[in-house]
Structures are given as structure tokens and as C-alpha cells.
Amino acid sequence: MHTVKELREKYIAGELTPSGVVAEALDNIKKLNPEINAYLHIYDDAVEAAKEADALYKEKGADTPSLLGVPVAVKNNILIKGKKATGASKILENYTAVYDATIIEKLRAEGAIFVGSTNLDEFAMGGSTENSAFGITKNPVDPERVPGGSSGGSAAAVAMGSVPVAIGTDTGGSVRQPASYCGVVGYKPTYGAVSRYGLMAMGSSLDQAGPLTNTVADAEMVHNIMSGLDKMDGTTIADDTYPKLETKDKYTFGVPKDFLKEGVDEDVLSAFNAHVESLKAAGHEVVEVELPLFEKGLAAYYIVMPAEVSSNLARYDGIRYGLSAEGDDLLDVYEQSRAEGFGPEVKRRILLGTHVLSSGYYDAYYGKAELARKKMREELAEVFAGVDFIITPTAPTPAFKIGENEDPLSIYKQDIFTVPVNLTGVPAISFPMGTVERDGKELPVGVQYIGPHGGDARLFDVGKAVYDEQK
Amino acid sequence: MLSTMKKEDIEHLASLARIKLTEEEKEGLVGDLSSIVSYVSEVSEIASDDIDSQPQVGPRFNVFRADEVTNEADEYTQDVLNEMPDTDGRFMKVKKILKAE
After folding, report:
1. Is residue B3 pLDDT above 70, yes or no?
2. Fewer CB atoms inside 10 Å of the end CB: C or N, chain B?
3. Do B39 and A409 touch (CB under 8 A)?
4. Pick the CATH number of A4-226 from 3.30.565.10, 3.40.30.10, 3.90.1300.10, 3.40.50.720
5. How far is Cα B57 from Cα A258, in angstroms, rounded to an integer?
6. Per the structure, how many domains does chain B have?
7. Which of A330, A339, A370 sits opposite B19 (nearest CB)?
8. Which residues of A touch B35 (CB under 8 A)?
9. CA distance A253 to A287
């Protein structure tokens, strides 16, 4: 699949047409999806939209919206009016969205063509898509392995070559970790940069939508379209909420050495060290930094996130929309609908959240976790006074085999490097830093660059220099 | 800090969360939640007794708007009604809450 930039140039030059490219995308999906299961729904009406885009290019050429005719896949926890929005949950199996998410409106206004919805862990809870109610997605690089998650369908959709852009959501690493496992680029914006209106809420103080692409330049372009103040989301930020950060020729990178001591796969660590050496060779400065609180971040995350989950998922009650089970009275309808509608991981997190918010435990858990977030932000601000970026592997291991990881706590630990980013609200990008060999297969592994609040433009700048130009 | 869950605790939480659990689910959750809760208790090592500082996630600002209706009457009504499990005209039907003795 071409990059977005290439498609745009070729559409304008008349070397490719949206109809041709969309037909190719749909063919790819129909051929590969029975095996990979990246997509939950395929939108055949994309063909009509492509024809309209063909005509617009003929008429107006370069004077057309910037994504006109570009096929895009969308994680199925993002609302597209008139399309099924399931969150990969049985409780919403037959739910049709009644409005567009703000990011969908923005992509639509720029001419993007939605070709299908992608699979995810139920309500974005998980790191492998094994928690989807509609089947596991397989990793296109090695179908015996998971694509990561929760935006595993989106990462697989890009990796299998069906689309140049897929949209995901990231609450604790759900865009970056699957990007790492599938060998693509994944972006988590500064909290508030992108509207959450029309996203199925998981952890409202953590959730952000971001693109998965083949190049950093494409991720930048799509992010810039999706971002901006939105009157429908009061947490969105203005351009001047955080100080502007200028781009530079040479940057200073901070490596949290202590953070990498335990639990990181040896081969991942060597790939990471090689990446660090390449940064030095390119003239960047690399220093060691200390982030002792970040190592504890995961504990805070597994309090804050389930607490918000338990509140947000109270809306699925079997009354107003979605699955409704038979019951003797109203309470029974609630309890039966939620019993039948939710999968095991969602139930686990709702109960955990209910526990940490319950009377007598609130101060010990939620209160402490929110304080921990504040201290992590302070620690981070100190470190960013001395460095431009903090870098870590995106995940401690390459993609694991389907069914291999069953203990919830050990799956949670895959998020060790990504959750501090959501807890503190800073932006981060993951792109491939190399491969590691497993069973004769070369599996991609990603590196994560973390920037300070509002450092989105600078992350794209360094990503283009380090990744796109070396590709 | 409580870090070991008993079956009764799980049943209490399930009733608060309005989820009916099977016996098998309850047994699995006793183990899962016990280990997760004892793990997350580590959070007290970061923010022990720091009661002076107030938690704050991001920049705080008020967002005001005029108290006006911004959509057309009935713009979404039919679409929303279509998603309801049980309706009667423009009404949503629900099970009775009070039982007649």
C-alpha cells in the first residue's frame, strides 16, 4: 500500500484513481480478512464515495481536500453515523451509531473514505485482541501470534497492506503497543489534543485517539486533521494551552536505564541499545535519566483505569440500547443483560473499579493513585527540563503467541512503558526499531519516544528524521 | 489494606455493579482480583501520606456555553428510538420496578 502522501500526489497527477485504490483495498480485505480478522465490518459503500472522489479530482485536481480518496479503517469503538458500533462487545452487537464522532466528521470533511471497522479487545480492554467478542485478530507478520491491542485490528489492517491509515484509541498503550507488534507507526497525542466525542469512553482521563500508519509523516498529517478544540469535549485543549516547542536539528534523549533493568526481553533490549547507538551516531545527545515513579505507574494505572471503566460502563444497562436480556423486574434486566453482554476481562475490570471506588477504599486507592499521577507529572517535568525526549522500548517483548498469556497480571505488565504516558497526559510515538527472531520469523519491535505536554510537532519532526528518512 | 478477596466480597461487588455472576466466574475472580489488588497496593509507596497536595491530572479550565438547544427538534429522535430494546410509540418500555404484593 502507498503512503497517504504518495496517494495524494498520484491522484492529483492522474496516475491513480480513488476508485482503483479503494477497489484494491476492498480486494485485499476480502482476500486476507478471513484469516487475519482485522475487520469486523466491510463498507461496500466506499465504492460510491470513491467514484465521487474520482470526479472531484478530474474537476479540481490539487484544489481538493487533503485526504480525498484515501481509504481509512476505523476502530469499532469510534462512532460512524449509520454504521454498527460494537466496541467488540456482545452488549453492542447490533448497535448502530446515531451520530459521527468529531474525528470522523473531521476526516470525512477532508475526503477520507471509510472502508471498514476494525477489531479490538472488548471496549478496548486488553493488549492482544484476544478479548474481542467477535474472534481474535491474527498478526499479519506471523499469524500464530497476536497483533497486540487493544487497537490490534487497526494495526493489522495497516500491516496487511489494506489501508495506509487506521484510527485507534490509546488508554494505556492501545495504539503504540499493537504498532510495535505489527511493525507500523502509532501515535498517542497530548491528552486533550484530540476530541473524545463519539469514542466509547473507557478511561476518560486517559483516552486519546491516534493514527496507525506506515510513516511518521502520514501520522502527522492525520493527527493534524483530527486534533483541535471541540465544543463537544470540554477537555480538548487550544493551540496555546502548552508552550510552543521549536524543532531542532539535534535533540537530547533521556534513557531511563533503571526502568529497563527488569522484565525486558534480551533481544528487545539489544535492538533498543542499537537504536540508542544510532541516535548518537547521527549526532544526537543521549543521557541517562531517572524516573523512579514511572516504575510504579502501572499500579496507579490499574486503579484509575478500572475506576473510570466501572463508571463509564454503567451506561450499558439493557434498557436504552444494546443487548437486553429477559428478567423478572428492572434490576434483573440490568443484572442479566450485563452478565450476558460483557466478557470476562470487562467484568473483571468493572468489579476491580467498583472495589477501588467503594466506601472505605476510595482514599487508599483512587485518591492515592490520583496523587501518584500528580507526582509523576512533577517528576516528568524535572526530567524534561534537561532532555527533549525520553525513549524506551514500546513493549518489553515482541508479539506473543495466541493463547500463550493467560494470567491477567502478566498481560497488564506488557503496558509497563506505555501507561505512564497516559497517566501524565504527555504525547508519545512508537515506530519500528528493528526485529527480533523467534521460531525462524523476524518479528518487529517498536521504540517509544515520549515528549513533554504539547510536544506533538516536535515528536513528528524527530520521527520523520529518525524513521521516515532512514526507511 | 485489604488484599485478599473472599467470595462474599466478589458477590457484594457484583451486586453493586449490577452483574449476575456464575459460581465458576466468582471462583476465578476471587483469585484474579486478590492478586491484582495486592499488586496495585504498591501505589501507596509513591504517594504515602502526602495529604497536603491535591491531585490534578491536567490543566484546569472552565468551559462555558450558552444554555441553548443546538439541534433541530426530532433530529435524532427516531434513530435513538430505533436502538431501544422495547418501545411503544415515542416511549421506551421498561420492566416494573415495584412489585404488587
Report:
1. no
2. C
3. yes
4. 3.90.1300.10
5. 25
6. 1
7. A339
8. 409
9. 6
